[in-house]
Write a structure and sequence with these properties.
CATH class of the largest domain: Alpha Beta
Number of domains: 2
CATH superfamily of the largest domain: P-loop containing nucleotide triphosphate hydrolases
Number of strands: 14
Bound molecules: adenosine-5'-triphosphate, magnesium ion
Order of helices and strands: EEEHEEHEHHHEHEHEEHEHEEHEH
Shape: elongated
Oligomer: single chain
Number of helices: 11
CATH architecture of the largest domain: 3-Layer(aba) Sandwich
Structural class: alpha/beta
Helix content: 25-40%
Length: 308
């Protein structure tokens, strides 16, 4: 059963006289990975700091697992773990010692430490000093620390920063496991849209402190079927220039993208279109339906331009 774990209600935050977060309202469920996107300076880190109880806010409220940060700070904080900016690791201590230190503060037993080491996949390296860890291993170590208290909500500010493709892949699997198999609510910010597309169940786009879009990822990237089964198809041929001329002469509207042609047609006209090309001596190398991408959606809503 999905349950609201993070609830942000009409939150505003100003630094001095400048309003940075403007009446922000949204919620995230258990078992869900929620991607928090937006341009530099949009207010993502500020929001995450408020959720982690690191900075105060004036208006509205934030509830974690039902506990209000304003009225029930301690209980709200018991249910959240996270990393914003650089994780605090003691470099001269081993990974295990780092975990033991935090476990002692929160009175967590050894069994939980072992469990976490297992979850984040650091078993082999946990007795090594942190200064000998790679960036990816340090990132896992920080996730481990954030998980010590078995939080219902995990907050991660740009966790993929600086990681290589393998480490990104591993972190993605780890977060998916936490959310989808262990019911953790994962609230993560990132600028890597292709990564977010692979990792997140839902995204929220923040711009100048306001949420301008909140949507399930499937809704964004699903094939945009226009009416009557009409969709945009990408076509790559042996001679795109000639193919374009032929199609235009046959009454098709063709969009010439650098490496492919794009044509909007109905499903039952695919045969006809391919036949026209073949009978004109053109070989079709690729014919595929065009999927919308998160990047396109992001650029649309934030007012950026898509590369034509
Ligand atoms: N302590 C502070 N004092 C004053 N202004 C601040 C403070 N912290 C953040 N800001 C301002 O708040 C705005 C939002 O910053 P924030 O770090 O939340 O953005 P962000 O969305 O995380 O951006 P990025 O993608 O670059 O990480 C920025 O204009 C920033 O200058
Ligand atoms: Mg930030």
């Amino acid at each position: 059963m999905e349950k609201v774990v993070l609830e942000i209600k009409n939150v505003s935050k100003s630094f001095g006289r400048t309003k940075i977060i403007d009446n922000l309202t949204f919620s995230v469920n258990s078992g869900e990975i929620f991607g928090f996107l937006g341009p530099n300076g949009a207010g993502k880190t500020t929001t995450m700091k408020m959720v982690l109880g690191l900075i105060p806010f004036s208006d509205g409220d934030i509830c974690i697992n039902g506990y209000s940060i304003k009225k029930d700070f301690e209980k709200a904080m018991q249910n959240v773990g996270g990393i914003v900016e650089n994780p605090d690791l003691y470099e001269y201590m081993t990974g295990y010692e780092n975990l033991k230190l935090v476990a002692r503060i929160y009175k967590v037993d050894k069994k939980r430490i072992d469990e976490i080491v297992d979850i984040v996949g650091l078993k082999e390296k946990i007795k090594l000093k942190v200064k000998k860890y790679s960036l990816g291993m340090k990132q896992r170590m920080s996730v481990a620390l954030a998980l010590i208290r078995n939080p219902k909500l995990l907050v991660l500010d740009e966790p993929t920063n600086g990681l290589d493709p393998v480490a990104i892949h591993e972190l993605r699997d780890l977060l998916k496991d936490l959310a989808h198999n262990r019911g953790v609510c994962v609230f993560v910010s990132s600028h890597l849209l292709s990564e977010v597309e692979l990792m997140c169940d839902r995204v929220g786009i923040l711009d100048k402190g306001r949420l301008i879009k909140i949507e399930g990822l499937k809704n964004i990237t699903e094939i945009k079927d226009k009416n009557d089964n009409e969709a945009i198809y990408k076509i790559i041929t042996s001679d795109n220039k000639k193919a374009k001329d032929i199609l235009v002469n046959n009454g098709y509207e063709v969009n010439d993208k650098k490496e492919a042609l794009e044509v909007s047609i109905k499903k039952d006209k695919i045969d006809l279109l391919i036949n026209i090309m073949l009978s004109n001596g053109i070989t079709v190398y690729e014919f595929s339906i065009k999927k919308a991408t998160l990047e396109e959606e992001y650029l649309n809503v934030t007012g950026g331009k898509i590369n034509e």
